[in-house]
């Protein structure tokens, strides 16, 4: 599927409107087909056999049975557009060649479309913004086809004013029957909330295009950073809504909403970059708020941009719940019951994938922030630790509530920190070249390669994860706040250790010896151990950047031993923990 780039310079267009209500593209096309039946000579183009035989339709997952695809197919033939224009009884009618129209040449089709556009411009005095382009008709993008529908509707409006539009055939209802049971009510809820959601996306898109058209409010780069791939998202969501509307119009026994989700599962990938960008986009909106004030009239003042930017995240989380409710209200004997179950599994996979993408994005931002929050020594870079997999606030080993740990699990290393207690306010202002003070004290860390095992321990009223490393068989505890937190940390850590052990078993004894000497454990024992001298009072005595020059806090990978490592060795020899200094 091909989508137009985000920076497409479409004229500013509001969502389709009928009377005082906003209607969907599906509803608008259904209404347009009804009006076209009153155009002299147009009935021949509404023949179902013609629609099935024509090869000019858009290569999309939409079905020729929905009104959007039907009109898209017809208008690409060119001749139906000429027929519509000729319904105005112009002095110079457009030439129509209906001979083997379904087997025509694409260039002939485009020539007919071109003559229709020229006639609208010259004879009807339409403005450029009132017209679609040939590429918008033939490109597989609903953002362009919306303009096609508007142009044709304007021609029909002119025809109706002049009294040339014949009596319409009986109106077809695009909506399901009035709710008579809970399942039908839920289908109506799904339908209406989906239409409302697409309308909100279209309003946000119109706002973006207004910013692009103005050019003076925000730079093109900033607009792109805020709205990302919104055009592609709107295009996809219209197609998804069309499929929902097509199913909702069927009798209950024929509805197969599960298949709709299965068909669109791969296309839901369009959500991943948009949802992952929401945090960055929201921060930019706050940053540029003063500049955006002049455009506030284009969006609901009570909600604003950020509430609209978050709606795709909210909607993707809502789909599994709606499917769950629909399954509950569907008879297991329904012909498409198992399709619903499969559809629910499909959208759950989509939601989980999007959540995982968001989690990776947030972890990248957290890792970047950690580089500046800790006073790393020797020019260390957090990026050398591998990807950040988990970060959480855990209890300290003795369960003291006033000294929680901030724990970061990277692919290569486990890092444990505590917040620095500021004892005095900074008296000197920061200069241009000065760096902000670190906000975290590095208590301890250990490389994953040195961890021997991860064991959940049953302790009354506590959720403890015991970490054993293979140097002197030392161990420490991670105390989680909940059972779910314990399971999450145990699962990820255990997998990392298993992978490290598998790699280590394939390494020769010499290489293993070199690795052990060059990557010695950076022992967090002094603050994890359950002795009485756990870092309490002496923690607050550290220097301002949270690093004690005498004790140190690690063994560097170069092999140089730190004071903390010496303390560990001394403890293992005489059974007591020596005091620093």
3D architecture notes:
- Helix 11 packs across helix 17 (337-373) and helix 16 (311-328) packs antiparallel against helix 17 (337-373).
- The protein has a four-stranded antiparallel sheet with strand order 3-4-5-6, sandwiched between helices. A three-stranded antiparallel sheet has the order 7-8-9, covered by helices on one side. A two-stranded antiparallel ribbon has the order 1-2.
- It has three domains: 17-161, Calponin-like domain (Actin-binding Protein, T-fimbrin, domain 1), CATH 1.10.418; 182-370, Dbl Homology Domain, Chain A (Up-down Bundle); 377-420 and 436-574, Roll (PH-domain like), CATH 2.30.29.30.
- The longest helix has 37 residues, at 337-373.
- The chain starts with 16 loop residues before the first strand and ends in a 7-residue tail after the last helix.
- 48% of the residues lie in helices and 9% in strands.
- It is of the alpha+beta class and 581 residues long.
